[in-house]
Specification:
binds adenosine-5'-triphosphate; nucleotide-binding; 10 strands; 35% helix; transport; six-stranded mixed β-sheet; alpha/beta; four-stranded antiparallel β-sheet; phosphate transport
Length: 252
């Protein structure tokens, strides 16, 4: 039995009076990739952002339910949100490197945490860029601007930036939807390589991506979790008619 890294029970989220999540029960195993799919507006990103408290910043949000990381209530009053976000890193749809060098981007979180030793920083840069499958492309220009890279390269640097602080969980919100097919495939292959070390949760609109790289899939519809299962099983024999209709392109 795999260890459950994140558990969530009866999660509701309200934007003002609008209930965007209507009681979600969903758990994530370590060393698995879970894909979250569903039509636009079904609540996938809202749910993903709950897992490292990114919704806290939005005004008039009300959150109910129980979400735990390794058994710890992440909404407990004594939870340190900065350290939570180190343990649960996030990659966004648009690559968002800082306007610094590649090197300074990757070590950003470590420097914030007070790490100054040059050898430690150098080693973290090399390891993280290798894990993010971009070391060979950038090793000779670590001190040039990350903004001069292609979109796909920028996204891999952003992933290296998350990996450098050694998270347990990586959240990715449509990480390849702004990228060309070759860059998307590079990122998919990298995520498959990272699976042995991390728990990966991915929002995607791309059904091929979900079926190709995820172990589990969660299908959301209008704020509900309709179905959650092994990806192969869900794509071949969905339990629910709504899932089948969505996978067959009948809506969304
Ligand atoms: N900051 C916000 N304030 C008010 N409503 C919001 C906010 N963010 C999202 N919503 C609403 O909550 C619902 C869920 O949005 P969410 O972005 O989570 O959906 P999604 O499934 O990720 O969609 P997409 O695939 O288009 O990104 C939508 O109806 C959306 O309009």
């Amino acid at each position: 039995m795999k260890n459950k890294v994140i558990t969530s029970k009866n999660v509701h989220l309200f934007y003002g009076s609008f209930e965007a999540l209507t009681g979600i029960d969903l758990d994530f195993n370590e060393h698995e990739i879970t894909a979250m799919i569903g039509p636009s507006g079904c609540g996938k990103s809202t749910y993903l952002r709950l897992l490292n408290r990114m919704n806290d910043l939005i005004p008039n949000v009300k959150i109910q339910g129980d979400i735990r990381l390794e058994g710890e209530d992440i909404y407990a009053a004594n939870m340190d949100v900065v350290s939570l976000r180190k343990r649960v890193g996030m990659v966004f749809q648009q690559p968002n490197p800082f306007p610094f060098s590649i090197y300074d981007n990757v070590v950003y979180g470590l420097r914030l945490a007070g790490v100054k030793d040059r050898g430690t920083l150098d080693a973290a840069v090399e390891t993280s860029l290798k894990q993010a499958a971009i070391w060979d492309e950038v090793k000779d220009k670590l001190h040039t601007s990350a903004l001069a890279l292609s979109g796909g390269q920028q996204q891999r640097v952003c992933i290296a930036r998350v990996l450098a602080v050694q998270p347990e969980v990586i959240l990715l919100d449509e990480p390849t939807s702004a990228l060309d097919p070759i860059s998307s495939t590079q990122i998919e292959n990298m995520l498959l390589d990272l699976r042995d070390r991390y728990t990966i949760i991915l929002v995607t609109h791309n059904m091929h991506q979900a079926s190709r790289i995820s172990d589990k899939t969660a299908f959301f519809l209008q704020g509900r979790l309709v179905e959650f299962d092994d990806t192969k099983k869900m794509f071949l024999t969905p339990r629910e008619k709504e899932t089948e209709d969505y996978l067959n392109g009948r809506f969304g």
